[in-house]
Structure formats: structure tokens, C-alpha cells
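can u do me a favor
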């Protein structure tokens, strides 16, 4: 079969795998933002125990490979906790994949948010307190909106990395884009064409995200002026 025909024939199946990749990426980014925000606020807390818990979380998930984390959550935890019985052997790997990605994502986002908050001038917080705002109100209405603009470039880089990290879900039997491609290659041995097509699909989606982020960043700078 001609190389072009192989790629066209495989495209619908690869798009299904891409859809699964996007689903896991969105879940991981959403949960990762929640984990990261909570962890960053704990890291900046006055309470030492909260700072310690956040520090341990960040160090563990940034200091070990994502693939090891995924395998531990998917295959290690069920050996001591009956997670497969609770959720079912078909559902639990999906949960493990989403949680594993999100926890890893959250660890990196923690440092991005913490750096963004610390970059806001301390006088902003003092001014908010001087007009009667609580610590929570100052963070919500004054600090975070300013910090968010500065977080956009590193957050986008992290989101792009998360999309690429979904290719590590294949070893825990999640049929995402790369795993779908491996199945197709096993059927027709057209590795060059299929893996090239997979790389192109990743490139298109990540390029689109980075372009959108650049547009958003420019708009926020314009609004700022």
C-alpha cells in the first residue's frame, strides 16, 4: 500500500486515540491546577506542617519519573488496597492514569504558582490589608489576578508537557494516541508512516495551544496598558 494511503487509512483510528489523549490531558490539567493551587498556598502558609506536607508532595513527584509513578499507582497500590475491587479492573486503570498525571502536573504547577505569587510586590498585599481586606480577600482579588498574568508562559509550557506525557500511559494499557499507533503498526508494519503521523498530530495540537497562549498573553499586556 502506498505510504500516503496508509496514513489516510490510519487517520480515523489515530484521531480516536488523539481524543483519548486530549481527554486525559484536560483532566490532568484541571486537577493539576487545583492540586497546584492548594499546594502552593500551603507552601506559603504560616503553618509549618502545611509547608512540610506541600514540600514533601512536590519533592516526591518532581524527584521520581512519571512512568514509575503511574505504574506504582496503577499496579502497586492495588496490591495493598483493593482498588480494582472497588472500581472494577477496567475502570481503575483509567482513574489511576488521570490521578497519576494530575498529581505529577500539580507538583510542577505548585512551583509555578508559588513563584508567580512571590513575584507580586509585597506592598500590594500590605495595601489590601490597610483597606480592611482579609488575607483570603487580598489573595483572591489583588495577588492572584496579577500573579496569573506572569504565570501564563510557564503554565503553557507545563500544559504542553502534560500532553506529551500522556504517551507514558501506554505501559498501563491506556489506549491513547501512541498506543493506538502501536496497534496499527503491529497490523501493517508501517512504522515510519504511522509514527511520523503521530508526531505530526502532537505537533499540531501543541503548536495550537502555544499560539493561543501567545495571543492571550498579548491581550493581557494590552489590557494592562
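np, heres the sequence
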Amino acid at each position: 500500500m502506498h505510504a500516503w494511503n496508509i496514513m489516510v487509512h490510519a487517520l480515523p483510528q489515530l484521531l480516536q486515540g488523539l481524543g483519548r489523549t486530549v481527554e486525559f490531558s484536560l483532566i490532568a490539567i484541571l486537577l493539576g491546577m487545583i492540586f497546584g493551587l492548594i499546594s502552593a498556598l500551603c507552601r506559603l502558609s504560616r503553618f509549618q506542617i502545611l509547608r512540610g506536607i506541600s514540600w514533601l508532595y512536590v519533592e516526591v513527584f518532581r524527584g521520581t519519573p512519571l512512568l514509575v509513578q503511574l505504574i506504582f499507582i496503577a499496579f502497586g497500590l492495588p496490591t495493598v488496597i483493593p482498588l480494582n475491587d472497588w472500581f472494577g479492573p477496567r475502570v481503575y486503570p483509567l482513574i489511576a492514569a488521570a490521578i497519576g498525571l494530575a498529581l505529577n502536573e500539580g507538583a510542577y504547577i505548585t512551583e509555578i504558582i508559588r513563584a508567580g505569587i512571590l513575584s507580586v510586590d509585597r506592598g500590594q498585599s500590605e495595601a489590601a490589608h490597610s483597606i480592611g481586606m482579609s488575607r483570603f480577600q487580598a489573595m483572591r482579588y489583588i495577588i492572584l489576578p496579577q500573579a496569573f498574568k506572569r504565570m501564563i508562559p510557564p503554565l503553557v509550557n507545563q500544559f504542553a508537557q502534560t500532553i506529551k506525557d500522556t504517551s507514558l500511559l501506554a505501559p498501563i494499557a491506556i489506549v491513547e494516541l501512541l498506543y493506538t499507533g502501536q496497534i496499527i503498526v503491529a497490523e501493517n508494519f508501517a512504522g515510519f508512516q504511522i509514527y511520523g503521523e503521530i508526531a505530526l498530530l502532537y505537533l499540531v495540537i501543541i503548536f495550537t495551544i502555544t499560539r493561543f497562549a501567545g495571543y492571550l498573553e498579548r491581550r493581557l499586556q494590552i489590557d494592562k496598558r
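The two ends are 57 Å apart (CA to CA). hope that helps!!
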